[in-house]
Amino acid sequence: MPGKLKQKSFVSLTGGFFLLLALSVIHLTQGQADYTISELLTGVWTEGRIQDIVTSLRLPRLVIGMIAGGALAVSGAVLQTLTNNPLASPGTLGINAGAFFFVVISSIFFPGALGDFPFITALLGAVLSSVLVVGLAGKAMEPVRVALTGMIISLLFSSLTGALQLLFENETNGLFLWGSGTLVQLNWEGVQFAAPVVLMLFVGALLLAKPMDILSLGEDIASSLGQNVQAVKLIAWGVAIILSAAVVSVVGPIGFIGLMAPHIVRMMGIRGHLQVFIHSFLWGSVMLIGADVLGRLIQPGQEVPVGAMTALVGGPWLLYLAWKTAKSLKRGDRQVGGTTKPIRLSVLTPILIAIIAVVMILALSFNGAAWNFAWLEPAVWNFRVPRVLTSFIVGVMLAITGVILQGVLRNPLADASVLGVTSMAGAGAMLLLVIFPAIPAAYLPLGATLGAALALGTILVTAWKNNFQPMLVALMGIAISAFGSAATQVFVVKAKLAVASALVWLSGSTYAKGWDDVQFALLLFALFIWPAIYITRSLDTLTFGDDVAAGLGLDIRSTRVWALVIGVAISTAAVSIVGTIGFIGLVAPHIARRLVGFRHLPLMLSSGLIGGLLLVAADFIGRILIAPKDIPSGLIVALIGTPYLLYLLRKMK
């Protein structure tokens, strides 16, 4: 090792060690049982209250934090080399979300297995997520595609997990906090399980360091040097996945540590996988313990999920990494697809209207137990009719948003969820509840609007100089979405909201909508539909690529700004009415594009009708599936749209 590298390594290890030591002392003094640092240093050595608290509760929490932080950091470092993607980590690739989903399934249907084999269930979910990401992202592992695929997989498993938590509230009671990532330990069992597993895999990672140094030169060069590339990659994937699963099974899904720690280590000048793994383990521990300390400083005496705290810090970091990554990539100008034999609108529109009419009649007439065609009765007219109409209008708005954003970003996976608009809108609404706990629910749209405006402003500021490069905007959206989700988790805890009610709003619900909501939805729709129609001609020009569009006289930057503003405004209007509903803006435009082609005016009309149909159907299914209970429409939409979305990701190879 050269002298300069030795010096950097010494500074990193020494600085990290003393910082971890200082944070550990602070960490051991935090909690409801209050005592000072001096009392800790003197009282921990003798039997009594302080020693009991430290050894039974706080020390296990501290140790598991160090182990989990180190494991996630090493896992992230391995994944970044394997995928050749600086944005890779167990969180961004959906590995954590898949592991948590399987833990939730196990707790509901196989409670004995969860108690006896939590690691196995988490491992199965982590493996499934990894297989999906690798299979859908393609062999090239192009960074933006991998990041978007990971986000979609995370969104899929998060939606499924949310649905299960609402359907089986008693069985999953207590999993909300754990599902956000928490280091709370009531004994040493978690440490006793995780420590040997992580230690063994950490040693395995160190043994893989040299082969991964060779692999990082490129697969062709590694093969020419005699390396069995497939074996190295398979073993490395196994190490990364098992490390993540071990962590999730004990402390829940904690994101961003695996993303940030390896980058910080490399920024310190550490090179070579052996050194990167060692330093990443140390700094991952530092970061996770630091996040836990910060969380308990923000809300003393109350548990703030450490996973939410790492995401609050990691969101801006991902924003920076996304900006750097997108700048180094070529601009993508491929078309987002469409049929070469479009169906005429004069033929398609009556068919869609007929299907919508049938679904609406079903939705208005059946309550899950009995049929009632007397729609003018007060119970139906005042509750069910406005609910169905609101669902249709909002579905149309979400689908139009998807058309605009997919067109302007040249990205068939774009919608308000990918841009982070729905996530930040949810965070804004929750923040309003934190500041004004007694505020009526009717004012939640104000907070949602502010959150969505912040998301849009962040995108405009960061992407302006790069002429709103589609890849850059998409990656910005991933970072903003992660930040918004983390902020929402913190606000839910801080506002002391009932978990079920918070999940319902955040999952998107058309429950209890009245005629005032119909009027409000119609007003917003009438306000935004004309700008949306006006922008379609410019979006048609953009389909030929930026160079051709500029040659035809289109102001590319101005078009992208206005399209983003219009798309975000329509999305925000929809969120303000029914909460955060995803997938409609992803699925409806794709179905329409396969029917009418990629010209945006007919695409917008047909997408709107399909979006309205999807949300009305989702609302109807959610209302009757476990009547008299309701399942939020957003979760039903996710369950309906997921198979199509997975098929779409596969076809996009």
TrEMBL record:
Location(s), subcellular: Cell membrane
Superkingdom assignment: Bacteria
Pfam families cross-referenced by the UniProt entry: FecCD
CDD domains (alphabetical): TM_ABC_iron-siderophores_like
Chief place where the protein resides: membrane
Membrane topology: Multi-pass membrane protein
Keywords tagged on the record: Cell membrane, Membrane, Transmembrane, Transmembrane helix, Transport
SUPFAM superfamilies the UniProt entry points to: ABC transporter involved in vitamin B12 uptake, BtuC (SSF81345)
Record-stated family: Belongs to the binding-protein-dependent transport system permease family. FecCD subfamily.
The name this protein goes by in its record: Iron ABC transporter permease
Organism: Planococcus shenhongbingii
